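ZP: hey, is the uridine-diphosphate-N-acetylglucosamine complex queued? I don't see it on the tracker
AM: it wasn't, my bad. submitting now with these inputs:
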Amino acid sequence: MEVLVLAAGLGTRMRSSKPKILHKLFDKTIIDYVIETANSLNPEKVFIVVNPDVPEVLEHLKNYELDIIFQEEPKGTAHAVSVAIPYLKSENILIINGDTPLIREDTIFKFIDIFEREKIDLGILSFYPEREHSYGRILRDTEGRIIKILEATEIKEYQNLRESNSGVYLIKRYLLDFVQEIKENPRKKEFYFTDIVEILSQRGYKIQAYPIATEEELIGINNRNELSIAMAYLRDRFVKSFMEKGVTFYDPKSVWLSPLVKIGQDTIIYPGVWLEGNTTIGSNCVIYSSVRIKNSIVEDNVEIKDCTVVENSYIKSGSKIGPFAHIRPETVIGKNCRIGNFVEVKKSTIGDGTKAAHLSYIGDAEVGSNVNVGAGTITCNYDGKKKNKTVIEDDVFVGSDTQLIAPVKIGKGAYIGAGSTITKDVPSDALAISRTPQKNIEGWAKRRRQKS
Ligand code: UD1
Ligand code: CA
């Protein structure tokens, strides 16, 4: 078998400057899902028909080993198939619309199985949609034989036909030559591949449609509404599989999950959580509301409190992050740390048991273990030209409202008095303090009141 993916349409109903098949369902584009499913079937070859004038699509397809076929002008699905005919060599051809990303591999295998068992000439994967839609409908005669597919614009007198065409077909290759007999649709000025059904049916070929899946797999994405429905289907699928693995979701409909995400047992996900890219969350974690985690690893027993953002970082077990923390790329937070309210950490490593509980900026820093970073501590990493490094060794106590002017190093066990501006290295076990001594002027306020 060879697979032929049709993806040269204009996608005008999306109303987008971006090609339809490059719109994303979470972290992957529509066409990524289709190609991955096609490859997973292990066919002789996967062909994709695309429009040669859409460079973004050609660029995107470089990620795959595929046979690309150009349809110079999008003159309809039958025309798309006809430009591919000279390249097709296998006995059976599986045709998939490029905008049908959610179909499961198992369903296609089942479809192939029946097609072969029942010795069918043209098989159609059909389904019964439950919402208003614009799919083609399958028309059968009184004995149940398929005689035609009617497009949404042509169904006036057949309003109650419900069985719909998913745009996934299995056909004997030699029958594709009948595509040449398809006439242009007078209204749409397009050649409809679906018209092959009537042609083959009149010649007595064996056509069968199999409603073996639902719209949850067979949705075709033509507009933004269908894009959002497809995303919800996919999200429900991910959530369900995690629930089966022992993850709790307090509001499954409100989360965003990338297909690459992994979540460990007994982790609890609050409403509005976004887990993007290649993110792994360990077991027994709690991810509170409105947290976004991207391309990161979170080990077991971590709590990420509300409104925290974590990107390209690593958080080790037992740590508590947030609320309102921002963990920026290339950060490693050790075990049992506490990174609290309004703390931003960038490109830094934080040792085990270290606490930065309030209002700090830690950037380009190497912080040891069991360090206490007082409220309002700032690493001044940027001198206007380049970024400089701050090193804070183990067991240091940094008093509140300290500025550490990098490059600077604070030795093990040192103390820094609150409100200090540290410009020079501090040796181990020293106390550094740099602030103007306090002056109290006795009776000052009383004299002021008397004057006025
Ligand atoms: C098509 C089917 C419809 C079916 C539905 C399932 C036809 C005429 N109708 O309708 O019966 O219910 O899919 O989702 O086939 N394409 C090309 N070249 C073209 C035109 C389209 O490659 O010239 C590609 C598109 O990129 C798309 C696929 O073919 O991936 C289907 O085209 P689309 O315009 O979306 O067809 P539908 O109206 O959805
Ligand atoms: Ca479509």
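AM: back. Residues 6-9, 49, 71, 74-77, 79-80, 97-100, 135-136, 149, 151, 164-167, 192-194, 220, 222 surround uridine-diphosphate-N-acetylglucosamine (ligand 1) (CB under 6 Å).
ZP: great, adding it to the tracker
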